[in-house]
């Protein structure tokens, strides 16, 4: 009979699942001064290869000691190859896609998932355990099986876990419960989330072993597409070189190819359950897929053999009250492209800093911050799942027509790979994704005050205001929500990535700006003081927040000043012209971009957007409005007048045919004016109303607090109401 017990004291967060995603969540929370426990039903790390590709973006967001270990021990891959084998058995490389131009890490690393888990667990065990105290360090509590959620109230959640070694059932009270317990997540089921999607007909065999007479090499990931008379020939195979000298290989089987493996039983989806294959069986399939006609296993090299059916599913919600899910608990899909674990790492990094902020800053505003986890991550996860589904459908098709068209498309990909530069690599590495639509993505801009003769208001081109508008709309620059360019170098030569990795809070970037643009800014924006590098450093140091007793930093922890004449090219990478500042979130995305530099804008962002208490009261002009009505109305009136003129000309033309040249000329002028009006609208959409006198920050905060009290979050799910979601963010980018 199981014994029951109550946890000694409440904790800040309970993480269920000690896979790669759960370990990263626990690391991030422990490093930010939270009392956290992490439990797992297994008695030890499973020695399974499983998810083995680690993207460059994952290496950026993982803790430095873990990244250093992966770089040291993992295998570096710098290109992808697509191979095709025709009906006669002739194979050829039809496309080679280089990924060595990916910033910092120049490709992707591979190693077995259990090795990644060991590295993460090792780092976790170096962090202080604030729950147990007494100078103890964090540990994974194993053989602890999650049973159920007994209470999910506002501010806390209670759940039961059973120690399978002792039989004791423990009730744990935590402020937050985070489920990182995989595709069959108990947390997801207990919270009542649906896992919407479908199961595919294709079945997959996987093998990790060393090979002889393999046609590939250790420098590239290879995908093989094949046709042939042998029943096992149609299909694809994917190979990934591993650091132990072996390969992780995956191949698919359609329903006909599955026939000789069926057990006679059906799974819950009504599809056949297959027998466990042997390594030699998989080698036989790979020979038919173009991996090598004389392909053989190296004796004693088999590390892992598995078989599985792919499901493509996405949870309907990522949050309910105090309960969150992350990683495979949120999404599962084909292993094609090796995106699953990397998506989970970005889930973990996005979620952990927000939970830590909520632990340290309880309140209604921080509830909206927590809601951005689902808003930001689910939108990207959904896009990735859609892309993977389409890719899986394409590579698994046995149609001769699809085989022909697919081969032509792959040749095209190979031919243009050199033209697109590192764009393909950045998508594959997940460096290209941004949180631009998020409520946390904001930009602060200011427009010139009005003059007696508002030429810059009425004129469609020219003037500081127009230059600013078109720069904001069309310039190549790092915008709010974007990944911060981690490859940028500071004036001391250090990579920005290293600064962001060691930051315990937010990272503040201050750009000196270019001389001409700074003079332009100072001449046209009210109360702007252009600072030199020393002045910016002094400002940055004054904005640093002191850590609390647990080491948590409730604001800026690291400051970087980029001089215009510095050794790096940060101004160019960020697309900076005038003096400005960036606030970089703990997950290394841009939260706020502010031009000109306004200290008060940063504190306002922390307090009003992130719910972070204790921010200094520093006055700051309000940000620019999102629509400039006057020139838009003016151009609309001109356009309507010209349309009316055309109507009149049409009437005249009917009576006087010789007036045709005049009508054509007027029509051309109308088209030009229409184009100018369109450009004016696009530019003025981002323009601002005139800047009022400086507003006292305390008065603004009092008004905001009154608004927030009227806008309480849903107590049951903690999700934003429609009215909250519709609130216009501060001049954020689209």
Topology, pairings included?
Blueprint (H helix, E strand, L loop, with lengths): L2 E4 L4 E6 L3 H12 L4 E5 L12 E2 L1 H6 L2 H10 L1 E3 L1 E7 L5 E8 L9 E3 L2 H12 L15 E3 L1 E10 L2 E8 L4 E12 L6 H6 L3 E15 L1 E2 L7 E7 L8 E7 L5 E7 L8 E5 L5 E3 L4 H10 L7 E2 L6 E12 L3 E2 L2 E3 L5 E2 L7 H21 L3 H33 L3 H17 L6 H6 L13 E4 L9 H4 L4 H12 L21 H7 L3 E6 L3 H10 L8 H10 L13 E7 L7 H5 L5 E5 L5 E6 L3 H11 L19 H27 L4 H25 L12 H13 L12 H4 L9
Parallel strand pairs: 1-12, 2-3, 2-12, 3-9, 6-15, 12-23, 25-29, 26-27
Antiparallel strand pairs: 4-8, 5-8, 6-7, 10-11, 11-12, 13-17, 13-21, 14-20, 15-16, 16-17, 18-19, 21-24, 22-23, 26-28, 28-29
Structure report:
This protein is α/β, with parallel strands linked by helices and 734 residues long. 36% of the residues lie in helices and 23% in strands. It has 21 helices and 29 strands. The strands form 6 sheets. Strands 1, 2, 3, 9, 10, 11, 12, 22 and 23 form a 9-stranded mixed beta sheet that branches. α3 runs antiparallel to α4, α7 (340-360) runs antiparallel to α8 and α18 (629-655) packs antiparallel against α19 (660-684). The termini are far apart. Residues 456-462 and 682-734 have low confidence and may be disordered.
């Amino acid at each position: 009979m199981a014994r029951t017990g109550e946890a000694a004291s409440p904790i800040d967060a309970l993480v269920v699942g000690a896979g790669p995603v759960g370990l990263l969540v626990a690391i991030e929370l422990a490093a930010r001064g939270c009392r956290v426990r992490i439990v797992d039903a297994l008695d030890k790390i499973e020695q399974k290869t499983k998810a083995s590709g680690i993207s460059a973006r994952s290496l950026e967001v993982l803790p430095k000691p873990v990244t250093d270990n992966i770089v040291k021990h993992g295998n570096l891959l710098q290109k992808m190859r697509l191979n095709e084998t025709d009906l006669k058995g002739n194979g050829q490389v039809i496309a080679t896609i280089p990924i060595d131009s990916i910033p910092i890490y120049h490709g992707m690393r591979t190693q077995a998932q259990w090795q990644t888990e060991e590295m993460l667990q090792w780092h976790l065990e170096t962090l202080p355990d604030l729950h147990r105290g007494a100078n103890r360090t964090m540990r994974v509590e194993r053989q602890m099986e999650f049973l159920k959620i007994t209470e999910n109230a506002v501010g806390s959640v209670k759940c039961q876990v059973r120690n399978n070694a002792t039989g004791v059932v423990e009730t744990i009270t935590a402020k937050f419960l985070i489920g990182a317990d995989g595709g069959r997540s108990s947390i997801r089921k207990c919270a009542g989330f649906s896992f919407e999607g479908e199961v595919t007909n294709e079945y997959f065999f996987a093998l990790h072993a060393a090979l002889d007479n393999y046609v590939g090499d250790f420098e590239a990931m290879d995908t093989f597409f094949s046709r042939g008379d042998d029943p096992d020939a149609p299909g694809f195979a994917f190979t990934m070189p591993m650091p132990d000298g072996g390969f992780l290989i995956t191949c698919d089987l359609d329903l006909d190819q599955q026939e000789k493996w069926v057990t006679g039983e059906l799974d819950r989806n009504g599809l056949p359950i297959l027998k466990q294959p042997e390594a030699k069986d998989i080698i036989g399939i790979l020979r038919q897929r173009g991996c090598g006609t004389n392909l053989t296993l190296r004796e004693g090299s088999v590390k892992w053999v598995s078989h599985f059916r792919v499901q493509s599913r996405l949870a309907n919600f990522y949050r309910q009250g105090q309960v969150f899910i992350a990683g495979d608990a949120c999404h599962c899909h084909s292993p094609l492209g090796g995106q699953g674990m990397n998506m989970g790492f970005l889930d973990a990094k996005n979620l952990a800093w927000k939970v830590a902020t909520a632990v340290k800053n309880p309140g209604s505003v921080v509830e909206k911050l927590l809601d951005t986890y689902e808003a930001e991550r689910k939108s990207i996860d959904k896009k990735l799942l859609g892309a993977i589904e389409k890719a899986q459908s394409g590579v698994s098709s046995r149609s001769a027509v699809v085989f022909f068209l697919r081969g032509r498309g792959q040749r095209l990909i190979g031919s243009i790979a050199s033209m697109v530069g590192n764009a393909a690599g950045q998508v594959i590495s997940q460096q290209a994704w941004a949180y631009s639509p998020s409520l946390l993505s904001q930009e602060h801009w200011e427009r010139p005050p009005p003059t007696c003769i508002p030429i810059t208001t009425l004129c469609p081109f020219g003037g500081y205001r127009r230059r600013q508008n078109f720069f904001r709309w069309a310039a190549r620059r790092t915008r709010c929500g974007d990944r911060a360019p981690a490859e940028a170098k500071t004036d001391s030569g250090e990579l920005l990535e290293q600064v962001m990795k060691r930051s315990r809070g937010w990272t503040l970037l201050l750009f000196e700006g270019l001389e001409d643009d700074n003079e332009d800014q100072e001449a046209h924006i009210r109360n702007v003081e252009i600072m030199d590098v020393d002045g910016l450093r002094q400002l940055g140091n004054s904005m640093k927040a002191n850590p609390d007793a647990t080491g948590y930093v409730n604001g800026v922890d690291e400051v970087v000043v980029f001089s215009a004449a510095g050794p790096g090219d940060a101004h160019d990478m960020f697309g900076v012209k005038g003096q400005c500042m960036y606030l970089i979130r703990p997950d290394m995305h841009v939260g706020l971009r502010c031009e000109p530099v306004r200290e008060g804008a940063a504190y306002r962002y922390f307090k009003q957007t992130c719910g972070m208490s204790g921010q200094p009261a520093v006055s700051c002009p309000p940000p620019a409005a999102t629509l400039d009505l006057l020139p838009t109305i003016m151009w609309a009136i001109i356009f309507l007048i010209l349309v009316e003129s055309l109507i009149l000309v049409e009437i005249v033309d009917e009576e006087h045919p010789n007036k045709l040249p005049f009508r054509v000329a007027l029509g051309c002028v109308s088209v030009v004016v229409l184009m100018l009006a369109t450009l004016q609208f696009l530019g003025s959409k981002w323009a601002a109303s005139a800047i009022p006198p400086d507003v006292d920050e305390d008065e603004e905060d009092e008004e905001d607090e009154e608004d927030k009290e009227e806008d309480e979050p849903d107590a049951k799910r903690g999700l934003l109401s429609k009215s909250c979601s519709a609130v216009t963010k501060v001049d954020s980018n689209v």
